[in-house]
# Entry
Amino acid sequence: MSVTLIPEIAELLRWVPLGRRHPQLLHGLDEADCECLPLAGGGFLLSSIDCLAEELAFGLYRDPFTVGWVAVMAALSDLAACGGVPLGVLQAVQWGAGTGDTYKSEVARGVQEALTSAGTWLLGGDTSNAVATSLTTTVLGTSTLPPVGRKGAKPGEHLVLVGEFGCAAALALRFLLGRPVDEFPDTAFRPRAQLDEGRLLASSVSAVIDTSDGLLTALGHLCAVNDLEVSLSWDESLFEPGALRYIRGTGLCPLPAWFVEHGDYQLLCTVPEDRLDAVLRALPTAHLLGRMVRDGSHVLLPGGRRHPLPLRPLLDRLWNHRADPAVLLGEMRREYAGLV
# Structure
């Protein structure tokens, strides 16, 4: 699957002036979570930018502290994937009409606590008024080694997921199902950028991507830039127990939770056979997810069953249903009923 077949990238290519990309950038389009630029004195400058808008427009996040926290951690998660050390963030905030001072203060508190948790700083920013609230965060960081990108995976290498999975999917599914907020509130969603883990992985992995946009989206990007497919092994131990209980309690098969476009900010990486044991020993939160393969993405289910995982059609469906994701959820509820 070519990178240009990913709907988001195809959309990007229609209007971004790629001819003005810096000629010394270390990676090509969609080949890393950060843009990486060699510095004259040695080492690399890493940068990334992330906008928090859709989740606010649709009402997924109602708690203002969560809004501030997620805005920072989403940007830092890109830096974590590249094994960078953060210098700090810049933030541009547009406040929607009628946004009160209490809401603004709680957003600021979420930003402050996320920065403190990550051991980094606010470098500056901008604020203005708009029709709807949005937060755009730019992260800057450094690396002494050439940062690992998304490209470099080889057939047969292990897929490893670092970090807990499930809270992001449970929150999104609660929202899409229209269930009461207090069943799984966004106050329970506190994803953490895996900064320390990213630096530990840097010398052991062949490719890495963060999962802030969801596990399926991360798999799609990883497969596209490497022209490979995936063989995944279903394992409920990947899930945070409370999130799994909630998802099953809604009557949904938990497998489509892997497809939700809302992630927990894990790191998804490919690891050569001779480095796997060292990675699993060094990172207690690392889980084996499967392997990279040449043909036919699929999920291995209990009892030896093999279920197809058509990445391109699934990504297309996610993109085409962005305005009505509940419709897609209904389709997947029927398609995957009783599978695991």
Q: What stands out?
A: The mean pLDDT is 92. The chain has two domains: 28-143, 158-335. The chain is about 35% helix and 25% strand. Residues 204 and 274 are 9 Å apart (CA to CA).
